[in-house]
Amino acid sequence: MAELMVAILGLDRLGASIALRLQSYVQKGGKHRFVLVGYDSREDFEKPARKLKVFDRIERQPYSAVEGADIVIMNVPYEDLRPAYEVLETSLRAGAVVLDTAVIKQPSLEWSEQYFKDEHHMIGFTAVTSSEYMLEHQLGPEFASDDYFHESTIYLTPSVSCDREAVELAVNFSAILGGKPHFLDPAEHDSLTTITEEMPQVLSVVAYSAAMNHNAWQDAQKLTNPPFNVLTRYLLTHHPDALRDEWLANAENLTRAIDDTIVTLQALRASIAEGDEAAVESFLIAASDEYQQWINRRHKGEWDDKASSRVDFDTSVAGTLFGGSIARRFFGGSKDNDK
């Protein structure tokens, strides 16, 4: 049994679920052992992660966590992302592969090109959670599970110059997590997550800002039940600096999405103001019908994906677990010896 060191920077639900899955893989007879090292600057995540007893050790500094690591999961808050790349510049071992979970990938690609050496490899890594957990929003490691990515999609966004064997390693690592690896161009990825990740952030903050500036807020704030609390939760889970930096780094995509949302809101506002029952009903029915179709597709994982975006394990060298010279450097021996 060969050994691979995985450093997870960021011990929220996603980071802790990766650790639990790797531990489960070993316990169920996986052919490789994973040494798991964790790090998180947030005490609210670091302490519960320790209680999981899944990590071989949890370090107090990021450079200590990544020292000697073969794979680094870059899962830090966005405001800490660039400083983390600076730290990794002098701490990564040759051949290390960094999987970056940031909502937008293009800034991370630029930072990796700026700070990394040629023997270091960064690949964007976006894991879509299993449909079983799709309506849950708790972020703490205490909610982690080893099936968090079961039958989900994991999007990989390597640069055009990324080492092929590093990509193969990312593909097989994704499969071990229980996901189905797909490829996306980084720019396309960021345009899509603008809609699914950043617009919810914007609407969350805008909803609270509009409420707190309303002349009835002094009394209304006492009537805040779960619908309002869930809607505005991003102000609790994200630092303002992180939201600022992320929004500005993706400004072109985000302003376009905001414009589209404004158009939709203005049309709805006009229908409501005019008392147009048919128009409001039509708006709601159309949204409701499409939502039901989407959520069913999401639960079943039935999408009309382009064939070119999917990883073909039957024809790709990625079908061999951790194939290639990078893997041989990690594990030793040849691919045939690992079968």
How would you describe this structure to a colleague?
- The protein is α/β, with parallel strands linked by helices.
- The protein folds into two domains: 2-184 and 306-338, 3-Layer(aba) Sandwich (Rossmann fold); 188-300, 6-phosphogluconate dehydrogenase C-terminal fold.
- It has helices spanning 13-27, 43-52, 62-66, 81-89, 106-115, 164-176, 186-212, 217-220, 226-231, 234-237, 240-249, 251-273, 277-300, 325-331, and strands at 2-9, 32-39, 57-59, 71-74, 97-100, 121-127, 153-157, 180-183.
- An eight-stranded mixed beta sheet has the order 3-2-1-4-5-6-7-8, sandwiched between helices.
Q: Any key phrases for this structure?
A:
single chain; alpha/beta; Rossmann fold; 6-phosphogluconate dehydrogenase C-terminal fold; 2 domains; 49% helix; globular
